Amino acid sequence: MSDLNTAMIEKYRSNFLKEVEANVEEGEWVKMCMQCGVCSGSCPLGKHWDHPPQEIFMMIRANKREEVLSTDSMWMCTSCYNCIARCPRGLPITHIMHGLAVYSKRLGLIQKKQPTAEFSQIFWDNLMKKGRVNELKLGLSMYFKDGFGQGVKNAMANQKLGQNMMKAKRMNAMEFFGGHSVKDLSGFQNMVKKAQEIEEGNLKDAK
Ligand code: SF4
Ligand code: SF4
């Protein structure tokens, strides 16, 4: 268990709602949920998850900390915004779902092989190198993340897609050798580092 997770359990013992309100993006909205179920009924994917949004909000209020933070349901949200458009209480449901995903990652509670979390990390690492996404390297990183053999199979299966992206100039073979970076790369990296420090500081203050 990570030190941060232990500290948070200690600080918010038996009050998971308070922990969510203090540490999760838009978490202060959870208490406004009236459990009508419209969000879960509107979510195109929720029925395939362990816990659709309405259930997650009910579990937060019922203090089911471990179940909420270890489920991968919030990682499956595609940001379609159906739920937000229909919630009679105007909860920013999508943001809360993503906020919970980010918080569980910070606490070291996500499953190692959760595919969306894996993709997010690969995307982030790719973006941070040049300040912009290198589509070719992003695709290759995804194809080869489970080893060379699987990577070759993935690349063969998707070669048509790659060719079409090159034709549409969404991908350039020269990107393999580095690709463009933003004009002020170190400025960009410093800005992100500063934002991360501020966020980390906010979490420490919450301890
Ligand atoms: S639609 Fe809004 S009020 Fe209804 S269950 Fe979902 S979040 Fe709660
Ligand atoms: S934004 Fe996420 S939680 Fe809301 S309906 Fe779409 S997939 Fe479901």
UniProtKB/TrEMBL annotation:
SUPFAM superfamilies recorded: alpha-helical ferredoxin
Which Pfam families is this protein grouped with? Answer: Fer4_8
User: Which residue ranges does the record assign to the 4Fe-4S ferredoxin-type domain?
Assistant: 20-54
| Keyword terms | 4Fe-4S, Iron, Iron-sulfur, Metal-binding, Oxidoreductase
Indicate the segments annotated as coiled coil, or none if absent.
Answer: none
UniProt GO MF annotations: 4 iron, 4 sulfur cluster binding; metal ion binding; oxidoreductase activity
InterPro entries noted in UniProt: 4Fe4S_Fe-S-bd, 4Fe4S_Fe_S_CS, HdrC_iron-sulfur_subunit, Helical_ferredxn
Q: Origin, by domain of life? A: Bacteria
**Would you name any one GO CC term?**
plasma membrane
Gene3D superfamilies in the cross-refs: Alpha-helical ferredoxin
UniProt protein name:
Succinate dehydrogenase iron-sulfur subunit
Species this chain originates from: Candidatus Thiodiazotropha endolucinida
